[in-house]
Amino acid sequence: MRGEVIRRVRGGIAALVLVGLVVAPWVVDDYTTSILARTLALALVGVSVALLTGVAGMPTLGQTAPYAAGAYACAVVGSRVSDVGVVQLVVAAAAGALLAALTVPLVVHARGVIVLMITLAIGELVVIVLGRWRSVTGGTDGLAGIPAVRPFWGLPALASDQARYLYALAVVATLVGAVLVLLRTRAGLVLRAGRDDEMRLRASGHRVALHLSGAHIAAGAVAGAAGSLLVVAQQYISPADFGFDTSALLLLGVVIGGTASVGGALVGAALVIAVRDWLFGVLPGHAPLVLGALFVATVYLLPTGVNRARGRLRPPNAPAHQSDQPAAPDQTNVAELHR
Amino acid sequence: MTGLLEAQEISVRYGSLAALDGVDLRIHDGQRHALIGPNGAGKTTLLNVLGGSTRPQRGTVRFDGRDVGRLGPAARARRGINRIHQRPAVFPTLTATENVVVAALPRVIPRRRWWPGGRRRAAQRLAGPLLDQMGLTAVAAVPAGHLAHGQRRQLEIAMALAGRPRLLLLDEPAAGLSAIEVGRLVELLQALPRAVAVLLVEHRLDLVYALSDTVTVLRDGQTLAAGTPDEIRTSPLVRQAYADGVA
Ligand SMILES: Nc1ncnc2c1ncn2[C@@H]1O[C@H](COP(=O)(O)OP(=O)(O)OP(=O)(O)O)[C@@H](O)[C@H]1O
Ligand SMILES: [Mg+2]
């Protein structure tokens, strides 16, 4: 009953936000529109971070790696092969998935903080490779002048910032929908179970490493697709788009949003990126400092993220969770990320 | 009768402590085997070895004629060794139904193998009756983390049964249950298909005598005695051991 009301309210808010996002390009100027398009791409990477951190229980600082792989694959294909959006998206998602698949052996057997360290190293390594592999990536100068995308064969190229923003919005909405559907399947159920109690999952006969590998590759595909949206939004990419600060901000956004929630991840990541872009203008040079402080404040003052409100809606006499049980997902915070 | 499970010369050491010291155990198809002994005797350790979560330093475990010593818990579960833990292990954020569904998934065979969602639906069909048997229908939609201790234990039993066990390892299934719940548990275990073998660790001897046809007594990591419930009941050795330990 109460759950039904909450669901309706949530659905209503989501619908309002969506309407706001659709009309946004007519309200704000072109520059802001292109910034918004880039923010959408980053929010989608945030969803892939939430998929790993909150749903699968693998906190990650390395989703910029498949994001970069997708972006560069899309940029190369966009400049040399095809300006069709669907093609670019598929190539970018495949590149992200491939990179994730290659790094599977490094991450699926590690847990908690170790995963953070390994994924961080992978992300940094990718940035270094991007800087060195000049013939393909353009080195630290990056790749510029990527032609405007046409969503589908026969459609016109998207010449305005508005059109490119709406394209990004449509892709993000579709992919987020796909992720939500995926989470309702058997795969999503088993992932949540594994985050709750991996040993129990094994005792029931599940191949835990296989499930985690699948989640890692799926999250890589989502991040890769987001990379293609970055290319669409900026028509220019460089290694600076994929640095450690981006990974850290995304994780921060996802933690603020309440790690296990896809909607929360979208909002949290978008919020953090928006704050960064805004601070960048207001306090030139000090943005990292302010965001660092925000990070610390999040961990200490808001240990459960925005989604903590849900915890208050529990029946009053129900125990939050047993002390010997892993924390519930809406109670995961950075300090608890190691299982 | 063939030996479904044969463990030989199992030894597990924790530092200088020998939790298990050359223990043999043989369980036949459909046998109801009880494992008793004072606290710290090594009962849980032996279950861990059989279930695959603890590697013994020495000894072999054969299940259904094959050496499973190198297999982990998941592979053994898929071969039919299912267990419940001394401290109930359930998925706290999943509902009771979802817990059973997850536990059933690896072993259900959907009618149409490649139909999307078929496997999950097949698991779902199993969950209802199992929860009903355990008296958990009323809390089927409640997250397992919100259940009382006894309910969680019953839920884990339902999960173990959902895995279609050929050998069920039960670590003190009655601990923390109310009298009504214990009654239901006894009924359930008595009603298990004959083909399912059970290894029951239990401190309550009345349950042991009611449910088992063979009893093994462990103490300090060694087999003290083994026999029928009647033999064990009257064995002076066992009386002595239990006089020192906990009954
Ligand atoms: N992981 C471990 N590390 C160190 N010692 C352990 C470990 N697990 C068990 N032990 C020790 O091994 C011995 C056997 O423990 P075990 O849990 O098997 O006993 P038990 O027969 O199940 O006892 P209880 O009736 O209390 O459950 C005990 O002395 C225990 O302290
Ligand atoms: Mg024990």
From TrEMBL, chain A:
Taxonomic source organism: Micromonospora saelicesensis
Protein name: Amino acid/amide ABC transporter membrane protein 2, HAAT family
Matches recorded under Pfam families: BPD_transp_2
Disordered, as annotated region: 312-339
GO molecular function (one): branched-chain amino acid transmembrane transporter activity
Compartments in which it is found: Cell membrane
Membrane-spanning segments: 12-28, 40-58, 87-108, 113-133, 165-187, 208-237, 249-275, 287-306
Composition skew (Polar residues), residue ranges: 320-339
Recorded topology in the membrane: Multi-pass membrane protein
Alphabetical UniProt keywords: Cell membrane, Membrane, Transmembrane, Transmembrane helix
GO cellular component: plasma membrane
Superkingdom: Bacteria
TrEMBL record, chain B:
GO biological process: one example: L-isoleucine import across plasma membrane
SMART domains: AAA
Record keyword Glycoprotein present: no
Keywords, comma-separated and alphabetical: ATP-binding, Nucleotide-binding, Transport
Entry's Gene Ontology cellular component terms: plasma membrane
Domain of life: Bacteria
Domain ABC transporter: 5-245
InterPro entries for the chain: AAA+_ATPase (IPR003593), ABC_AA/LPS_Transport (IPR051120), ABC_transporter-like_ATP-bd (IPR003439), P-loop_NTPase (IPR027417)
Protein's UniProt keywords contain Transferase: no
GO molecular function, one term: L-isoleucine transmembrane transporter activity
PANTHER family linked to this entry: AMINO ACID ABC TRANSPORTER ATP-BINDING PROTEIN (PTHR45772:SF7), CONSERVED COMPONENT OF ABC TRANSPORTER FOR NATURAL AMINO ACIDS-RELATED (PTHR45772)
Protein name: Amino acid/amide ABC transporter ATP-binding protein 1, HAAT family
Species annotation: Micromonospora saelicesensis
